[in-house]
Amino acid sequence: MRAGPHHVGYWVPDLAVAAERAARTLGVGPFLVHRHVAFDAFRMAGGAEITDPAFFDHSAAFAAWGPIVLELAEVHSIDGGLAAAYGIGFDRVGHVSWVTGDLAAEGARLESAGCRLIHEAVSGAVHVAWYDGGTLFPHPIELHLAGPPILGMHARLAAAAANWDGRDLLRPMRPMDL
Predict the structure, then answer these.
(1) Span 7-167: which CATH code?
(2) End-to-end CA gap in the chain
(3) pLDDT in tens, 30-85
(4) In whole angstroms, what separates CA 159 from the centre of its chain?
(5) Which UniProt keywords are listed (predicted)?
(6) Are strands 117-123 and 31-34 parallel, antiparallel or unpaired?
(7) Long-range contacts of range 102-111, CB-CB < 8 Å, 24 or more positions apart?
(8) Cβ-based neighbours of 177, under 8 Å, separated by 6 or more
(9) Model's pTM, two decimal places?
(10) Number of alpha carbons in the 13 Å side-chain half-sphere of residue 19
C-alpha cells in the first residue's frame, strides 16, 4: 500500500482557539475531538514500556481538509525526551502521517532512509509508529497501520463537513470514530 499523506498534524497551545482559527481562515470544520488520548500500549524505541498516562497526555482534533485530514493537537503533559523527539513547536508542521498495511516493512524502509523509530503505540484499534524525519523531513512521521478507523476517517470527517451548519465546531469523537 503506497498512498499519499493521510493527515498533517500541528501542535497548538489551545485546541479551541486553533480550531476556530482553522474554521475561520481555511473553512475547515467541524472537528472530531479525542480528549486525553489513552494508550493501551506505548513502547519507546529502546523497548521501554510506558504506563504513566502523564508521559504523553494530549487531546487531538481532526477535520477534513480537502483530500486529507487536518489534526490539531494540544499537549497537556509530556516527557521531556519525547517532546524533544517530536520537536514540539507551534510555528511549523508537527508531523505528517500515512497509512501502511505493514508497519514493520514501512518502518524498515524509513530506517533505510535515515529515519529513527521514536515509539510505537496502540489506542483501541489504532496502531501507530512514530519516526523522526531523518533526511526526509524536518518533522516526525507517523505511520498508521491500515484498519477501519483510519481508512474510514476522512470519509466520516468529509460527511460531517458536508452537513455542517457552522455550529458545534468541536464535537466529541465517538468509539466508532476510533
Answers:
(1) 3.10.180.10
(2) 21
(3) 999 999 999 999 999 999 999 999 999 999 999 999 999 999 999 999 999 999 99
(4) 20
(5) Dioxygenase, Lyase, Oxidoreductase
(6) unpaired
(7) 103/127, 103/129, 103/143, 103/145, 106/143, 107/131, 107/143, 110/134, 110/136, 110/141, 110/143
(8) 32, 34, 149, 153, 156
(9) 0.94
(10) 24
